[in-house]
Write a structure and sequence with these properties.
The chain has helices at residues 12-16, 25-28, 46-64, 66-69, 92-96, 158-175, 178-186, 196-206, 210-223, 230-242, 244-250, 254-268, 286-302, 321-338, 341-351, 357-370, 374-389, 395-415, 419-432, 438-442; strands spanning 36-39, 42-45, 75-76, 82-83, 448-452, 461-465. It is mainly α and 466 residues long. The relative contact order is 0.04.
């Protein structure tokens, strides 16, 4: 039976878009006779059409997966089979972060020599020259070359002033460095608020301790001439005198303290000596008049030889040990003369040296050992008992004071022969009063003595303690 030949006319473009089926129905049925197709007047064998279909399909796959498989090292053979080159495929994420060229050209180096990535300012070691102004630039200005750029700090208003300076002054009360405060104030644009610096410092010191007031006086003296002027200092004290009725509500002693600040400022030379005279007969406020009277009295005392720089006392941990020892010795002597326990307690607290209270315990016990009567014995016992009950002297300071006496009793005994017996008696009385503990009482040393024993011992000397 003869096979009828079919005439099929297709273009080369249609050749690539042929069906993916590689075989026709007759070939699947086992046809053995080769079929030919006429294309543009040429008869093409069916096997050639089949190969063209396979190659077209392989090319479409290659174009579709070219970007995804470009880094995997795969290749396609002539018959459409994929060949593995043995290169380990990379992940798509790693491919996105790859900075090498995707075109397949070049040596695989980073783009722009490593100077083109995000956040990169150029190649390592590159130094940029000063950019010169282009005269031909339309925005060029002749005055631009002589322009000086400075940082502009806005002046502080009243609310921002108090909020900014209060932490600075409170921190100064801790470290006491006036130079640091001066440098910090220079960085601020105080503007017309310069005179408010002493006002704020004095207002905070009124609520503080005597040592804070002494530090405030030093701060105002050191800032005068660098941050504030003498005119600003006078203006600040004028404002303090006007605000005294309000300051008294928080600090009842404000008039006396402000008067002391004025007297100290006059003594330091930052306030005119005629400042107080300018207010005579012109003050209606009772608190302001009391402050000026206090300053006048203190300044009149300087003519008698008293130094005005001790107007706030001599307390605080910044004082020397030698000076503190002298103050404690004077405190105990005044107490023995007056017998006022509350006054002695107040004077001890004004020294503001709780870490040095063991010196008072030591000096008090030594006074008892050196005394000859019972009056000093009882007064010192009452003083230590009162200080212990009021918690002015802590257990640690009391213990350190007694331990110092225990260590130095041999040297004290050289000058006071009966110091051992007096110490044992005083320690026992303190233990009965609850001032010291039993372990501290048991640590009290006792002097060994030589005595003759009975004749039955043969008259030998026997060492025995009390």
């Amino acid at each position: 039976m003869e096979i009828e030949k079919e005439h099929i006319y297709i273009t080369p473009t249609e050749l690539e878009n042929l069906s993916d089926a590689p075989f026709s129905g007759d070939e699947e049925n086992g046809g053995s006779e080769e079929r030919k197709t006429e294309i543009n007047g040429n008869w093409i064998p069916a096997t050639s059409i089949t190969e063209a279909k396979i190659n077209a399909k392989a090319k479409r796959r290659l174009r579709k997966n070219s970007s995804r498989d470009s880094g995997r090292g795969d290749s396609v053979s002539d018959n459409g089979e994929t060949l593995k080159t043995g290169v380990v495929p990379t992940s798509p994420k790693g491919k996105l972060l790859d900075r090498r060229s995707r075109s397949g050209k070049g040596r695989g180096l980073p783009k722009k020599g490593g100077a083109g990535g995000k956040g990169v300012w150029g190649t390592p070691g590159q130094v940029y020259d000063v950019e010169e102004v282009d005269i031909k630039d339309p925005n060029y200005d002749d005055d631009q070359e002589n322009c000086v750029y400075e940082t502009v700090v806005l002046p502080l208003d009243e609310r921002a002033f108090e909020k900014t300076l209060t932490p600075i002054i409170q921190e100064y009360f801790e470290h006491g460095d006036t130079n640091e405060v001066s440098e910090m104030l220079k960085d601020l644009n105080l503007g017309e608020m310069k005179y408010s610096v002493p006002v704020l410092a004095v207002s905070l010191a009124l609520e503080g301790k005597a040592s804070h007031r002494e530090m405030t006086s030093k701060l105002i003296s050191d800032l005068c001439g660098t941050v504030v002027s003498k005119t600003d200092v006078e203006k600040s004290f004028d404002r303090l005198l006007k605000e005294l009725p309000e300051l008294v509500l928080d600090s009842p002693r404000a008039p006396q303290l402000v008067g002391q600040f004025i007297a100290r400022a006059v003594g330091d030379g930052i306030l005119s000596s005629t400042y107080i005279d300018g207010y005579k007969g012109t003050v209606d406020c009772v608190q302001a008049r009391a402050a000026l009277d206090r300053a006048t009295v203190l300044l009149s005392m300087t003519k008698g030889g008293k130094r005005i720089d001790n107007v706030w006392g001599s307390g605080g941990g910044q004082q020397s040990v030698k000076h503190l020892v002298k103050e404690i010795d004077m405190l105990l002597k005044e107490y023995l003369l007056s017998g006022d326990v509350l006054e002695a307690e107040r004077c001890l607290q004004e020294l503001e040296v709780p870490h040095f209270h063991h010196e008072l315990v030591y000096e008090a016990v030594v006074m008892v050992l050196e005394s000859t009567g019972e009056k000093t014995f009882k007064m010192i016992l009452d003083l230590l008992k009162s200080l212990w009950k009021s918690s002015v002297i802590t257990m640690d300071q009391m213990k350190r004071g007694y331990e110092r006496v225990y260590c130095e009793i041999p040297d004290i005994n050289l000058d006071v022969p009966h110091s051992y017996s007096v110490l044992e008696r005083f320690v026992e009385e303190c233990f009965q009063a609850g001032i010291i503990s039993k372990p501290l009482r048991d640590l009290c040393p006792s002097r060994g003595r030589k005595r003759f024993v009975s004749e039955g011992d043969g008259g030998r000397l026997k060492l025995e303690s009390y």
